[in-house]
Every structure is written in C-alpha cells, then in structure tokens.
C-alpha cells in the first residue's frame, strides 16, 4: 500500500475513530485522533483552572504541555507532558467543554501545526472535523462519515456503559446535538464536508460494512 494520507471527518460518534483504527491497522499506517488533542487541552484547562474563553492562555497550554500518543496492547494511549490522560479526556466534563475550547483560532493553529507534522511522512489515517478541509487538504482520500443523531447517541450510550460512565440516553442525545451545532457553526474551520470528500452515511451499517465501503473508495482512487 502506497504511503497515502486518509482524512476521515464527521460529527461526534459517527464511527470515525473505530474505522480509522481498523484502516490504520490493516494498512500498517499511523492513526492520529485529533479530537483527543482538543480533549487534552480541555482536560489541561480544567486541571490548571484556565477559563474556556481565555484563548491566549489555552494556546499557551498547548505549548507548555506537548500532547503525544503511544501504542500499547490496550490501544492508543494519550499523554500531556508525559502524564497519561487516555481515560480522563473521555469524561463528561471534558466532553461538555471541548467544543468551546476547540473553537479558538489560536488553539487550532497550534494543534493543526502539530497534526501536519505527525502526517509529514505519509502513511496516515487522521480523524477529526477539519482534516480534509484544513489540516491535510492534499490528502489522497477524504471520507465524510455521518449517521443520525439517534443512532450516534445509542452508540455513545453503549460505549459509556462499557466504560462505566453513567449518563442518561436523552442527555447524551442532547449533548451530541449541541456539539454538532457548535462544531459546525464556529467561525474557524467549522465541521463541513470537503468538496472532494466521499460522503458515507453509516446509519444502520455495521463497522465491517463501513470499513469495506471506505476500502472500496480507496481502491476506486487507484490505491
Ligand atoms: O472526535 P471527538 O468527539 O473526540 O472530538 C472532540 C471535539 O474536538 C469535537 O467536539 C470538536 C473538536 N475537534 C475539532 O474541532 N477539530 C478536530 N479536528 C477534531 C475535534
């Protein structure tokens, strides 16, 4: 497999990270979860009591506490300045604030730069909201994954249960709809399908079916 870049964008819980990880494993590519980077800054803001509205102080956090990933037998681990925060960044307090933190241009500039460096050598599967439009506009393959709010809330509810996070289904649905709105209405790099991205609606599809569909798209582009 040629060392191409695959950009996977879409709203919260559309299945991006699940399929991105499978594709990265199958192609022996590097997987980069950009949402984890915005979550890490949000976690740091809570930890160091930086206001979610303080753009400059938040951008400083990204410089002071570098975010790194490490592969382990338990999957990908996330670190901020060496501290392991893999589970902490999935907690509801981080999820509730991450859209506000990620809307700041200065925060995005720092993280987009870091994401481009991670992708420099190619052979990458990167998921997020603005990968195809802003981070890697030259990516050879761009996928825009969507699914109904109802189905995404069901997936997140199940995931939470498995992780022991207790959250009401209706509250999850509401939180997803709110994040959809904030992520697609912010002024800097909003969530939007790139003109050259392939739309894949995963509502009612199994993970295997989505992976197969994306591999078909990759093949159809001659890779
Ligand atoms: O994919 P996720 O739910 O872990 O992402 C968390 C938040 O981070 C999401 O609500 C918006 C933001 N995000 C972003 O603005 N740009 C990205 N490339 C990835 C995530």
From TrEMBL:
Alphabetized SUPFAM superfamilies for the sequence: P-loop containing nucleoside triphosphate hydrolases (SSF52540)
Gene3D superfamilies the record matches: P-loop containing nucleotide triphosphate hydrolases
Location of the protein in the cell: Cytoplasm
One of the Pfam families matching this protein, by short name: Cytidylate_kin
Keywords: ATP-binding, Cytoplasm, Kinase, Nucleotide-binding, Transferase
Organism: Candidatus Enterococcus murrayae
Coiled coil: none
Residue ranges of domain Cytidylate kinase in the record: 6-218
Major location (coarse): cytoplasm
Claim: Transcription regulation is one of the keywords in the record: no
Signal peptide: none
CDD domains for the chain: CMPK (cd02020)
UniProt similarity note: Belongs to the cytidylate kinase family. Type 1 subfamily.
Catalytic reactions of this protein: CMP + ATP = CDP + ADP; dCMP + ATP = dCDP + ADP
InterPro entries per UniProt: Cytidylate_kin, Cytidylate_kinase_dom, P-loop_NTPase
Sites where the protein binds ATP: 10-18
Record's protein name: Cytidylate kinase
EC class: transferase
């Amino acid at each position: 497999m040629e060392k191409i870049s695959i950009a996977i964008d879409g709203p919260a819980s559309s299945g991006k990270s699940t399929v991105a990880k499978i594709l990265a494993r199958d192609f022996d590519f590097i997987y980069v979860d950009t949402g984890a980077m915005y979550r890490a800054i949000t976690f740091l803001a809570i930890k160091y009591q930086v206001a979610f509205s303080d753009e400059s102080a938040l951008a400083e956090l990204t410089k002071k506490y570098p975010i790194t990933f490490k592969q382990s037998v338990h999957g990908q681990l996330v670190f901020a300045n060496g501290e392991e925060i893999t589970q902490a960044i999935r907690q509801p307090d981080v999820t509730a604030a991450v859209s506000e933190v990620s809307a700041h241009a200065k925060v995005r500039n720092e993280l987009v730069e870091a994401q481009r460096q991670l992708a420099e050598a190619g052979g990458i599967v990167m998921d997020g909201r603005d990968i195809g439009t802003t981070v890697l506009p030259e990516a050879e393959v761009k996928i825009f994954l969507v699914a109904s709010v109802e189905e995404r809330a069901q997936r997140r509810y199940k995931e939470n249960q498995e992780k022991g996070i207790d959250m009401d289904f209706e509250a999850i649905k509401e939180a997803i709809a709110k994040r959809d709105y904030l992520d697609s209405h912010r002024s800097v790099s909003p969530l939007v399908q790139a003109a050259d991205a392939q739309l894949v609606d995963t509502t009612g599809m199994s993970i295997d079916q989505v992976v197969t569909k994306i591999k078909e798209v990759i093949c159809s582009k001659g890779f």
